[in-house]
Amino acid sequence: MIQSSEKEPGKREVILSAHDVTVAFGSNVVLDKLDLDVYRGEILGFVGGSGTGKSVLMRSILRLIPRQSGVIRILGEDYDKVDEAKKIELDMRLGVLFQHGALFSALTVRENIQVPMREYLDLPQSLMDELAELKVAMVGLAPDAADKYPSELSGGMIKRAALARALALDPDLVFLDEPTSGLDPIGAAEFDELIAQLRDTLGLTVYMVTHDLDSLFSVCDRIAVLGQKRVIAEGTIEDMLSFDDPWIQSYFKGKRARMIPDRTSQERSSPPQETGVTLESGQESEAN
Ligand SMILES: Nc1ncnc2c1ncn2[C@@H]1O[C@H](COP(=O)(O)OP(=O)(O)OP(=O)(O)O)[C@@H](O)[C@H]1O
Q1: Where are the domains of the chain?
Q2: Sorted alphabetically, which InterPro entries does this protein's record hold (predicted)?
Q3: What is the CATH number of domain 2-93+171-256?
């Protein structure tokens, strides 16, 4: 592994770490001894070719898919070594926005947001209503959206409602699986702005699986690239542009990328902080 960082890694709090993680389905090894750190307060963009295992890693971190080996630490705690009460405590620190929102169609937005509250907290209905309304406002939805069913919402509103549900328990870390997929460019840009705003105001850490180059260029502080069953490169968008790797070059400098105005020199809402920048040595990427 080449360390090509100009900055000193390791000064920031690691909120999530995956070490030596292997996940396989029968003989299909999807992740093989993967390592990844996520730092508190950052927006990490997680990219890789289709079918490389981005969702599998996210689901494995969330314990929805078993792994064959490896250690996953959330807020410094190894899930496998803590008791049930601590597991629940850790689960409450995580929020998830699944691809396509995954709202319960028979529940209103308010009721959807209250699902995790009912599962984990014992609050009076009036307080849960107040909290749900707060979350609705927080994600930029009009107050009357709270009483609508998912079928009555636009694609962008569904994403926002799902984000409100992900924020229901005031998590430290939110996982977003392709949050801007299916949105038009304006809706996607607005959603990106919302994510950046929430990170800045709530101090959220965001783990975002995405194919959206706009998001990667505009809001992600750091990017991790999945290929060859592990993370083959990590760093800022500027680092990605300079990595000598065919898949990374074609992904970040290809035709679609060239259509994005050069924003790498512009200030982001929160500039990237000191992070390690790594590229697996001597390997031709097969991220696609
Ligand atoms: N529950 C499962 N059972 C068996 N194989 C699975 C399962 N979930 C995922 N896979 C396999 O794991 C591999 C990675 O899938 P994954 O959905 O993580 O890809 P991805 O990188 O998120 O792709 P995309 O960008 O297209 O969403 C694929 O080969 C997929 O078929």
Answers
A1: 2-93+171-256
A2: AAA+_ATPase, ABC_transporter-like_ATP-bd, ABC_transporter-like_CS, P-loop_NTPase
A3: 3.40.50.300
d(CA 229, CA 53): 7
Which residues contact residue 100 at a Cβ distance below 8 angstroms, ignoring those fewer than 6 apart? 158, 181, 182
- pLDDT band, very low/low/confident/very high, at 101 (cuts 50, 70, 90): low
For the chain, percent of residues with pLDDT exceeding 70: 84
Question: Which of 27, 46, 52, when mutated, tests ligand 1's pocket best, judged by the most ligand atoms within 8 Å of its CB?
Answer: 52
Q: Cβ(200)–Cβ(51) under 8 Å?
A: no
The finding on whether 204 has its CB within 6 A of some atom of ligand 1 is no
Encode pLDDT of 255-275 as tens digits: 665 555 554 444 434 433 433
pTM of this structure: 0.84
Instruction: Quote the CA–CA distance of 206 and 42 in Å, as a whole number.
Output: 6
CA distance 51 to 68: 19
For the four alpha carbons of 225, 71, 67 and 118, in that order, the dihedral sign comes to negative
Strands annotated E in 89-239: 94-97, 173-177, 205-209, 222-227, 230-235
Residue 147 CA to residue 245 CA, distance in Å, equals 49
